[in-house]
Amino acid sequence: MQGAARGSGIAVDPERVREARLEAGLSLAQIARDDVSRTFIHFVETGKSRPSQRILALIARRTGKPISYFMRQPSLAAQPDTDLSTDLARVAERVRQFVAVSQLTKTELEAMKLVELTLRQAGELTKSLRLHPRTKSNHAS
Q1: Which of 10, 23, 114, 138 is within CB 3.0–4.6 Å of 134 for a Cys-Cys bond?
Q2: How does 53-66 read in b/e, with b if 16+ C-beta sit within 10 Å?
Q3: For the chain, how many structural domains are there in total?
Q4: Same-domain status, 8 and 64
Q5: Backbone φ, ψ for residue 71 (5° rounding)
Q6: Does 64 fall in a domain?
């Protein structure tokens, strides 16, 4: 019957639940409070249980993340239309958003700006390579 417990509720990305809690600096008890057990939150973080809509909303509120942040993302194999340049642009945007809400030192800020710039440039490069494919002999150096 363990499978039945895992099957009910909302499919979330367990690692994102854990990451959000840790980023917020919260313990299992601080997320759970009197609303749910710490064990249940642990089970959600390890993929052994799925939260109800109410518990997911509670986790989102306490970690300061939108509910959509926790939703299980489809695998790359299930996304045949996804291209690397688009993915890199999305990650670069997430880095920019992270920088905007984080208290970073000047050095950390500059490093994160370089990460964002590198991701954007990599996205443009992959887009260019897709538009202008080369033969294998041109790739060898």
Answers
A1: 138
A2: eebbebbbebbebe
A3: 2
A4: yes
A5: -70, 140
A6: yes
24 within 8 A of 63, measured Cβ to Cβ: yes
pLDDT confidence tier of residue 26, bands split at 50, 70 and 90:
very high
- Per-residue pLDDT tens over the stretch 50-63: 999 999 999 999 99
Q: Which amino acid is at 99?
A: V
pLDDT tens for residues 81-134? 457 888 898 899 999 999 988 899 999 999 999 999 999 999 899 888 877 776
Per the structure, the complete domain to which residue 81 belongs is given by 77-133
- Please enumerate in sequence order all residues whose Cβ is within 8 A of that of 116, keeping only pairs 6 or more positions apart, or say none: 92, 95, 96, 99
d(CA 114, CA 137): 32
Q: Please check whether residue 51 is in contact with residue 10, taking contact to mean a CB–CB distance below 8 angstroms.
A: yes
